[in-house]
Write a structure and sequence with these properties.
Elements: E1 10-14, H1 18-30, E2 35-40, H2 57-66, H3 70-76, E3 80-82, E4 84-88, E5 95-100, H4 112-116, E6 122-123, H5 133-140, H6 153-159, E7 164-166, H7 169-183, E8 186-189, E9 192-197, E10 203-208, E11 214-215, E12 218-221, E13 238-240, E14 249-253, E15 263-269, E16 272-277, E17 284-289, H8 295-302, E18 306-311, E19 315-317, E20 321-322, E21 325-327, E22 333-334, H9 342-355, H10 364-389, H11 394-398, H12 405-417, H13 430-439, H14 455-475, H15 479-484
Parallel strand pairs: 1-2, 1-12, 2-8, 4-15, 12-21
Antiparallel strand pairs: 3-7, 4-5, 5-6, 9-10, 10-11, 13-19, 14-17, 14-18, 15-16, 16-17, 19-22, 20-21
Helix pairs in contact: 1-7, 1-9, 2-9, 5-14, 6-14, 9-10
Amino acid sequence: MSEPRDPLRRVVVAGAGQVGVLAAIGIKRALPGAEVAVLGLARDPGALADHATTALPFTNRLHDRLGIDQDAILARAGGSHRLVTRYFGWGGPGQSGAAPYGAAVEPALRTRFAQEWGGGPRNSASGMTAASLAEVLADAGRFAVPPAGEIGSEVAALAAVEYALRWQPEAYHALLVEAAQRLGVSHVPGELAGIEPDGMGGIAALAVAGAERLSADLFLDCTGPSARLLAAMPGFALEDWSAELPLRRLILGRPGQGMLALEDRFSLLAEGWLGELAGRDGLRVALGVAEGVTEDAALRALGAPPLAAFQIEQGRARAPWLGNVVALGDAAARFEPLAHLNLDLAHRQLDLLLELLPGRAIEPLERAEYNRRSALMMDAVRDTLAAHYAAPAAQHVFGPALLSPGLASALDQFTRRGRLPSREEAALSGQELRSLLAALGFAPGQVPQAASVDGAQVEEEGRRFRHRAEAALAAAPPYAEFMTR
């Protein structure tokens, strides 16, 4: 008969940014009897997950599990909602498309209805109609989160729409710190002065300048791209993503005028890609600069006073869990903020760690399974980003794309057959990835169901979708009105 394992008694989180603080909250909630300490190292300005102002809908569910109140984010951290991300020009001049979340695109849109009524790549001259409830709401500028417990067809249509949250990063970080303090997470300010190995491929303790020695059973590395703990472990190695992801330089602009909007945008320009992230504290812009573009040309394309510039070395740790050190976020993988995946990956890695949380004696199989699944997550992020560079017009800006076998297969299946292979630990759901590829200008092939759908069925599906869209619009006030409430 197996004996219960001795649980973790002390966990140290290196890095006090939003990734590290939420990780500490997650560990403390999972192990209320354990001591959890956060080493408050200076935040790395190049840690894009730590400075992210948004994530994907998965984070909403993680917040709920960990007791982070969404209303508090809206009221105290400048929160707002995003229903879709719009893409402009990736398929060529004048082309545009929208990528919503979840299963908001009707399954019927994969049949002839998709080609005859909506759902494919669009441009301003096409006359095609929005193909998801999220896009209908964003076009109308109407949205609300229905109160829990409300029923009715109109509310049900609105409740089916998934959304992402944005926030002001300093205020959001302060909310997380308050939550961590209420749980009894301790904070140790100071700078890392040394690492004491445990003789078994892990860490016994951290030396902190001006503070006590920090020993622990498990260490979480949330130090950003430098991966200050994981990089000190025997066997540490990096996998280079530069062949699949050609971006080398990123410029961030100073936040402009605050704005409420239910969409964000990524536009392909001659100078690179331009991201525009709406926020109540200001419109934030970022330019992923193509090779050979001059500084003056890049700043003109940015369209805002520059705030920071980074060289991007994209890649991931081959094994993000070595010994008793687990790297999360930028310490595990560093990549550009295209498609808002930086913080989403960190949060999915944290969720995986909580699922596989070890005892004081770490089982090698647990560590191996975490590394396997986390590697799948990271490689799926790489391929999702690489799909942008494989888009028809992007190759004229960034050069020919090198596709991983997984991405090559996905694009082949999508363009020939209108389907996608299933993938474990994918960055997006199948429907979300289909929407993204269409928004990037890839023309989907015809799914087998399309041949069996007649004109009457096409019209019926259109009628049903219009009915759901009307119900959602009727239930949703103007977004500014909802936020004022």
